[in-house]
């Protein structure tokens, strides 16, 4: 009897499924970064040596430029507008972390204005966003 | 002469590997971008509007920041290094010291950050800062 030899086929790993997963992941991360999109105001950050991570689970950033203009998500508001947004944010999420991002040359009165709002609202914690000073 | 016709080979599925490489590189790029958005700085506890604390006057280290950003202590202008030395000496003689900073409304923010940084470096627990009233 003649035994028929089977030709072994070389195993093929199809990576088309992998690229599908990669693109799904890519779309997911793109959407997440769009949701977390941060509208920055051009400021020169103040610098210090003893800094810590101040990011909370939910964050609200108040930007103050050197002339004292206050911005949230790239939109300029006066102090009462800022207060309204903060109140709304705290009502939705009481543990909302408020960050103040002010230019190093901003007169302190404008930073104080935002802090006074938080103090009036009895919001106990504020984050002053600062860059790390590199040792000379 | 016989012309040989070359048959074009269709794209193989296995070649889409480069596509997945590209996708993964983009994923890493976006993850790195997301990490860059983490805020760093100082976390400060704000007092209640009506809170008052009684402090012994002798334990009070009063420091003033002028509109130009100069540091004044006991009516004298001092440098940040001198303030560090003075604060350290004061803490040795007054372990319950309170660092009271009075800031001019026009002081550049960086100067305020410098003092807060110093207080944190020296590990001073009681720190209060107020803005000088504008007449």
Task: Give a written overview of the molecule.
The complex is a heterodimer of chains A (136) and B (135). With 136 residues, chain A is of the alpha/beta class. Chain A has a domain at 47-132: Nucleotidyltransferase, domain 5. Chain A has helices at 16-35, 79-92, 108-120, and strands spanning 47-48, 52-53, 59-64, 70-72, 75-77, 97-102, 125-129, 131-132. Chain A has a five-stranded mixed beta sheet, covered by helices on one side. In chain A, strands 1-8 form a two-stranded parallel sheet. In chain A, strand 4 and strand 5 (75-77) form a beta hairpin. In chain A, helix 2 packs across helix 3. The termini of chain A are far apart. Chain B has 135 residues and is of the alpha/beta class. Chain B has a domain at 59-131: 2-Layer Sandwich (Nucleotidyltransferase, domain 5), CATH 3.30.420. Chain B is built from three helices and six strands; from the N terminus they run H-E-E-E-E-H-E-H-E. Chain B has helices at 17-36, 80-93, 109-121; strands spanning 40-45, 60-65, 71-73, 76-78, 98-103, 126-131. The radius of gyration of chain B is 31 Å and the shape is rod-shaped. The termini of chain B are far apart. Strand 2 (52-53) of chain A pairs antiparallel with strand 1 of chain B.
């Amino acid at each position: 009897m003649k035994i028929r030899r089977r030709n072994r086929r070389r195993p093929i790993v199809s990576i088309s499924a992998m690229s599908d997963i990669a693109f799904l992941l890519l779309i997911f991360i793109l959407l997440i970064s769009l949701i977390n999109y941060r509208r920055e105001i051009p400021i020169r950050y103040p610098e210090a040596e003893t800094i810590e991570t101040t990011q909370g689970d939910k964050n609200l950033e108040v930007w103050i430029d050197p002339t004292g203009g206050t911005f949230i998500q790239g939109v300029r508001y006066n102090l009462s507008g800022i207060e309204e947004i903060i109140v709304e944010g705290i009502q939705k999420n009481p543990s909302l972390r408020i960050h103040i991002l002010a230019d190093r040359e901003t007169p302190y009165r404008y930073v104080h204005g935002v802090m006074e709002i938080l103090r009036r609202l009895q919001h106990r914690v504020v984050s002053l966003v600062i860059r790390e000073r590199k040792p000379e | 002469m016989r012309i040989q016709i070359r048959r074009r080979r269709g794209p193989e599925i296995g070649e889409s590997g480069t596509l997945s490489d590209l996708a993964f590189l983009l994923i890493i790029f976006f993850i790195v971008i997301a990490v860059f958005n983490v805020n760093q700085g100082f976390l400060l506890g704000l007092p209640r509007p009506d809170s008052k604390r009684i402090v012994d006057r002798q334990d009070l280290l009063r420091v003033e920041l002028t509109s130009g950003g100069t540091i004044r202590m006991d009516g004298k202008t001092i440098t940040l290094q001198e303030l560090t030395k003075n604060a350290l000496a004061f803490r040795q003689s007054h372990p319950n010291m309170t660092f009271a900073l009075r800031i001019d409304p026009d002081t550049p923010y960086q100067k305020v950050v410098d003092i807060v940084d110093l207080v944190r470096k020296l590990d001073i627990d009681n720190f209060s800062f107020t803005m000088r009233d504008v007449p």
